[in-house]
Amino acid sequence: MHEEQRGSRVIPGLRYRDAPAAIDWLCDVFGFERSLVVPGDEGRIAHAQLRLGSGMVMLGSLVDDEFGRSLREPRELEGGVTQSAYLVVADVDGVHARAVAAGAEMVIAIKDEDYGGRGFTCRDLEGHVWSVGSYDPWA
Fold it and tell me: Looking at domain 13-133, which of 2.60.40.1580, 3.10.180.10, 3.30.360.10, 3.40.50.2300 is its CATH number?
């Protein structure tokens, strides 16, 4: 039996020191929409789900628990990361302009790609790396 798929079966999970600010930034800059935000203690976010089209990221506040101890944030890795996400968007130049205005550090300048599409790579407000482009590998 084939179950109807509503979105991607792969959902990145992120942790932020200031998860409420990260949620605002990701929504304002990249165009995510809040699907579910569960507040935690002391202004933290216990769990959040942000949607972008049929894609989603889940995130929460950094906490010292079993899962949290298995993660490292970019500042602990001297700005390095061990993974990143790619966002497929229609208006790459518009997202790029919002990212620059919001203070994103550009890792790879906006450019047209040899394999098709246009894109750029940046760091968000806490150093997580995001690639944004019009190239759609599903198309």
Answer: 3.10.180.10
